[in-house]
Every structure is written in structure tokens, then in C-alpha cells.
Amino acid sequence: MRLDKYIVACGVASRKEAAQAVRRKGVTVNGTVASSPDMKIDENSDKVVFCGEELVYQKYIWIMMNKPQGVISATEDARGQKTVIDLLPERLQRMELFPCGRLDGDTTGLMLITNEGELAHRLLSPKRHVDKVYRFESARRITEEEIEKAAEGLVLGDGYECLPADIVADEEGCGGRITLREGKYHQIKRMFGAMDNRITGLKRVKFAEIELDPSLAPGEWRYLADHELALLRNH
Ligand code: URA
Q1: Candidate list 104, 131, 170, 213, residue with the active-site label
Q2: Whose CA is nearest to atom 2 of ligand 1?
Q3: Atom number, ligand 1, closest to the C-alpha of residue 104
Q4: What is the pLDDT of residues 17-58, one digit of tens each?
Q5: Ligand 1 site: residues with CB under 6 angstroms?
Q6: What is the pTM for the complete model shown?
């Protein structure tokens, strides 16, 4: 890999800044001052020090974010709305990360963000039926009969037949947890619409085996731990 690309991939500089640092003799490869930004290095074995900092190369990045309301799950937005990528530090914004799946603007909670297209694609494939669990609040209480209908597969207003969804309602009040095995546009809102009910709050709390870290406030993020990543890879 080219040295300047490697520095960018480590998330410490832009390509231009990497080239400038090399020209100012601020970069060493295995203890020797780097001669040119386009010199080839072995990303698996060479030790690169950038402005005094030893770089750690990670080919794939996986982040969990507690998505806040009003932020969209896209890499950029034509209307200038804030995206989940905008909430990350600049060094990560340069790394071609994208959200693994979609949440509505007003839905909060677990959003996975990565640059590993193949695994993300696999997890999102409609054939895989990866479980997604949401905490919901609704305009009125959901009945036992409706829970049974959802477990059999609701039919939406446009005739779409949903896969069976599990709903566990709170004992009191208008809320509970719903588990989906698919992810159609506005699916939960449309399911509740089909039951003459309305979603008033939606938060994703689990994707596959990954649970939202309760210590993350809205807008906060952290890297996935190795054991969490292993759960995704083995899913
Ligand atoms: N279902 C919805 O209606 N909205 C979401 O954001 C996710 C699932």
C-alpha cells in the first residue's frame, strides 16, 4: 500500500497532510525517515511513525452509535441535514464509513457504522432475516389479539405481507418491545398503522446479537469490542 494512503487509512491525516508530513521528514518507516508519500509499505508488518505517533492499521472499522433524533442514517444529505457520519470525529469521517442499515430520522438507538461492505451487505440481506429489536411507544395499548396477528404476519395497507414479528407489551401503558426479521421502509410505523394505532416513539435496542450499550448517551459512539465483532462475523 502507498504510504500516504496508509496514513489516511489510519485516520490521522488527509492525503494532503500526509504528503506534507512526509516532505517535512515527519514520518518514519521501520525507523528510517520516509522518502516519498508514494513509497510502498507493507501494512501488515511495517512500523510507521507519523509525527511521533506509531500508527495502528485496522482494515475494517465497526462502530456502535446511539443515534439521536433528527439525525439521518446516511453518509450525506442533499438538503444539508446532519448525518450519523457528521457526529464522528473528522479523522473517522475521512474513512468512507457508512451506516449498516437505516433508521428513520425520528427513530433513536442502535446504529452500526462500518467500512466493511461485504459483512454489512450480508447482515442486511433480506434472505438472512437478522433480528432487530425495538422499544416502542404507541398512541394506544396493543391488544393480545393484535400481538397474535403480528406473530402470524400482518398485512400492510399496500398488501405487503410482513414476516412474523414478536411483540412483548408492557404490563402498563402503551409500549413494549418488537422484534422484526426484516427491515422495510417505515415498517413498524406501517404495521401499527395497519392496526389503527400509531407509533409515538421508537428506539432500536438490538441488531443481531449486538445490544445498544446503555452507557452511550444519544449521539455518543464507541468501537465494537472484539467479542461483539465476532458475534457479527459468526452470525
Ligand atoms: N420501523 C420504522 O417504522 N422505523 C424505523 O426507523 C425502523 C423500523
Answers
A1: 104
A2: 186
A3: 6
A4: 999 999 999 999 999 999 999 999 999 999 999 999 999 888
A5: 103-104, 107, 186-189, 202
A6: 0.88
- Provide CATH code, domain 132-207: 3.30.70.1560
CB 75 within 8 A of CB 85: yes
CB contact at 8 A, 208 and 235: yes
pLDDT tens readout for residues 121-167: 999 999 999 999 999 999 999 999 999 999 999 999 999 999 999 99
Local structure of 182: helix, strand or coil = coil
For residue 33, list its beta bridge partners: 28
- Selected from 3.90.580.10, 3.90.1170.50, 3.30.70.580, 3.30.70.1660, the CATH number assigned to the domain covering 62-125+223-233 reads 3.30.70.580
CB 13 within 8 Å of CB 93:
no
- The candidate with the shortest Cα–Cα distance to 107, out of 145, 70, 139, 132, is 70
Q: What is the DSSP letter of 140?
A: S
